[in-house]
Design brief:
The protein is an alpha/beta fold. The protein folds into 2 domains: 18-194, 3-Layer(aba) Sandwich (Peroxisomal Thiolase, Chain A, domain 1), CATH 3.40.47; 200-352, Thiolase/Chalcone synthase (Peroxisomal Thiolase, Chain A, domain 1), CATH 3.40.47.10. Helix content is 34%, strand content 22%. The protein contains 12 helices and 13 strands. The protein has helices spanning 3-15, 41-45, 52-59, 74-89, 113-120, 137-151, 176-179, 231-235, 245-266, 284-293, 305-308, 315-325, and strands spanning 24-33, 37-40, 63-66, 98-102, 127-131, 156-163, 185-194, 200-208, 216-217, 242-243, 276-279, 334-341, 345-352. A 5-stranded mixed sheet has the order 1-7-6-4-5, with helices on both faces. It has a 4-stranded mixed sheet with strand order 8-13-12-11, sandwiched between helices. A hairpin with a 3-residue loop joins strand 12 and strand 13 (345-352). The longest helix has 22 residues, at 245-266. Bound molecules: coenzyme A.
């Protein structure tokens, strides 16, 4: 195939899409769902050698939500959050052309949750994509949606983050540094093409460092270490998630700062012009560190980890949905969302609402 032909074909194939570089994507609605069951630090004190004081001092968490067996799954919570986001956006669900579903705790090892949501929401046979970027999964998903909208391929995209993590942590002393941090829940947004200039997703910034993969990871079920699960692996805890908490903390504070700065600089904004920062709710100490580093007034940083714990891919959409409902996200709000987590991966998005 010569270059002229290839170029010609490319031009023709793009003709069917509305390729228009002035396309912007906007977040037009958000919703969230958290399970009813509230688990306090005092509840965890009964299950392992921990204290409310230790958990609050090291993480800022007072309580979290746990899924209800037989009722909640990662896909079903994502579906409920999606319904609320669709209602908030005021669209017909049949306008959605792509589902992007971010989770590290899917209903099944395969297939992913995107198709389960497609079924549960009774959507037509649209595209469904799962994103596996853990705590950064939602911003990675938002960025994927943004690219599809900007090329003109899709007009309306649903982005979901949902997690059922209480099912795979162990309530034991050996797993207490992880068990106390994580919670369950789901958040979703609807993104749609807009031709309004300087509005919507201004830029997204995605990063990874796989040399840190084993510093925060869940080795099984996987194929790298052993191909079959054995009784010994259950007994020795190797099926559980592993986290080098101190290292994660050190990298998180640096990477959060870098990707927030990049998002602002890329769009010629200063930190003082930012109206609201929604950091991934990893740990209140990490969020407080960033707040101090940027000298941001506390009211410009949204935190809800105190009541939900770290909900991984769900944390930012839950926070966005709550912030919007509380009137802290309005038309024209300059919003930065930033995340860091397992991979390591980290990401930011700057949005003019
Ligand atoms: N309750 C009571 N004590 C606990 C505990 C718990 N739930 N978990 C750990 N400890 C103990 C440790 O065993 C250790 O005891 P020792 O000194 O007798 O050995 C002590 O507390 C200090 O442990 P350490 O791991 O050094 O604490 P820390 O100050 O680093 O805090 C984290 C631990 C996990 C809270 C902290 O490292 C952190 O927040 N890291 C980032 C985690 C994160 O954000 N993960 C998600 C990424 S998206």
């Amino acid at each position: 195939m010569n270059r002229t032909t290839a170029g010609g074909e490319l031009t023709n194939s793009f003709k069917k899409y509305k390729l228009n570089m002035s396309n912007q994507s906007r977040i037009i609605g958000a919703g969230h769902y958290v399970p009813e069951k509230v688990v306090t630090n005092q509840d965890l004190e009964k299950l392992m050698n921990t204290t409310d004081e230790w958990i609050v001092e090291r993480t800022g968490i007072h309580q979290r939500r746990y899924f209800e067996e037989g009722k909640d799954t990662t896909a079903s919570m994502g579906t409920e959050a999606a319904k609320r986001a669709i209602q908030h956006a005021g669209i017909d669900k049949n306008e959605i052309e792509l589902i992007v579903f971010a989770t590290l705790s899917p209903d099944y090892y395969f297939p992913g949750c995107g198709v389960l949501l497609q079924k549960e929401l009774e959507l037509p046979h649209i595209a469904a994509l799962d994103v596996r970027n853990q705590c950064s999964g939602f911003i990675y998903g938002l960025s994927v949606a943004d690219q599809f909208i900007k090329t003109g391929m899709y007009k309306t995209v649903l982005v979901v983050g949902s997690e059922t993590q209480s099912n795979f942590v162990e309530y034991s002393d050996r797993h207490r540094h992880i068990a106390v941090i994580f919670g369950d829940g789901a958040g979703a947004i609807v993104m749609q093409r807009s031709e309004e200039k300087n509005k919507g997703i201004l830029s997204t910034h995605l990063y990874s460092d796989g040399s840190m993969a084993e510093e925060l990871f869940c080795p099984h079920p996987g194929t790298r270490l052993k191909t079959r699960i054995t009784h010994e692996m259950i007994d020795d805890g190797s099926l559980l998630a592993h986290m080098n908490g101190n290292l994660v903390f050190k990298h998180a504070v640096t990477r959060f700062e870098e990707c927030i700065t990049t998002a602002l600089e890329k769009n010629n904004y200063t930190i003082n012009e930012l109206d609201l920062l929604i950091p991934h709710q990893a740990n209140l100490r990490i969020a407080d560190f960033i707040t101090r580093k940027f000298k941001l007034p506390v009211e410009k940083v949204f935190n809800n980890i105190q009541k939900y714990g770290n909900t991984t891919a769900a944390s930012i959409p839950i926070a966005l949905s709550e912030a919007w409902a509380e009137g802290r996200v309005k038309e024209n709000t300059l919003l930065c969302m930033a995340a860091f987590g397992s991979g390591f991966t980290w990401a930011s998005a700057l949005v003019r609402m």
